[in-house]
Amino acid sequence: MSTATLTRAARHAHVGGIEFFVYGDGAPVTVFAHGLAGSVSETKPLAMPLAGTRVLFNFRGHGGSDPLPGGWDYDLLAHDLRVVADHVGATGACGLSLGAGALLRILTTTPDRFDRLAFVMPAALDQASNDGAIARLRALGAAIESGDRERLTEVLLEEVPADLRDLRVTRVLLARRAAELAVMTPPAPARVDVPVRNVSTLRAVKAPALVLAQEGDVLHSTDVAHRISDALSTSTLEVLPPAGVFWTAPDQTRTALRHALTPEHL
Fold first, then answer.
1. Which residue in 16, 53, 118, 222 has the most C-beta neighbors within 10 A?
2. Domain residues of the chain, as ranges?
3. Which spans in the chain are helix H?
């Protein structure tokens, strides 16, 4: 199927208290997992250029999914990802940031669950986040709690290259994102947790995998990306320039994901 024929209309549904949206049709069926305090709007730019059926969901505690008063851990995140993937018959999976951690957790117990894998800006492997990442998440959480859309927009702008911050499209996109965050309760971890406790378990994963990182990202260290790629025997690592995934090199992002998640004959 050509990407030119894909529709942006979505089918909206819930399963097990988890909200999800289905775009397109046919093979392959790929599920997309967002990051902390994120939503389907975060994974939509990654999913929409691809062929086949793309399934975007909100973890519980996010978007229109059930709340999580007790907080999250990677077992819970992996459960949500697995429930949606099994429900739609997904053969491929893409995890962004925290979603990459959820995908890693699934692979530690069922290494053959998916045929194709992508880890975009992974935040952690077998160690907790660094101090810079924690400070960034606390700032975001405080801005969400305040409900101040202008403050939220400013916090989000810190992740955007300086020369792009004053563009109208940047301001519009981040204002929209801030409006989503302003009405949510910041999801907190239920306990200190890491995606993978024993990195050697990932050696059992045989599906081709893409690990996509970007330079200069405090929350998503390239060191973590390198270690994940080294742990997966069939992985390809691609490191983009600063802010490359969404802002400075989006064409490279789309090309890398298309090659990683779409069979060659499609």
1. 118
2. 3-129+193-261
3. 40-47, 74-88, 98-109, 131-146, 149-157, 168-182, 222-231, 250-261
CB distance 49 to 5 below 8 Å: no
Instruction: Tell me 212's DSSP state.
Output: E
* CA 242/CA 147 separation, integer angstroms: 29
pLDDT per position as a tens digit, 84-116: 999 999 999 999 999 999 999 999 999 999 999
Contacts with 209 (C-beta within 8 Å, 6 or more apart), sequence order: 116, 117, 118, 119, 229, 232, 234, 235, 236, 260
Contact in structure between 156 and 166 (CB atoms under 8 Å)? no
> Scanning the structure block, which residue is given the tokens 């939220």?
152
User: Residue 3 CB: number of other CB atoms within 10 A?
Assistant: 14
**pLDDT tens profile 165-215:** 888 888 888 888 888 888 777 667 778 899 999 999 999 999 999 999 999
Interatomic CA distance for residues 42 and 120, integer angstroms: 12
**In CATH, what class is 3-129+193-261?**
alpha beta
Report the DSSP pairing between strands 18-23 and 53-57. Answer: antiparallel
Burial of 184 per CB tally in 10 Å (0-12, 13-18, 19+): middle
| 229 within 8 A of 19, measured Cβ to Cβ | no
Under 8 Å between Cβ of 213 and 243: no
78/74 Cα distance (integer angstroms): 6
Rounded to an integer, what distance in angstroms lies between the CA atom of residue 25 and that of residue 16? 22
Q: How far is residue 125's CA from residue 105's CA, in Å, rounded to a whole number?
A: 9
pTM of the predicted model over 0.85: yes
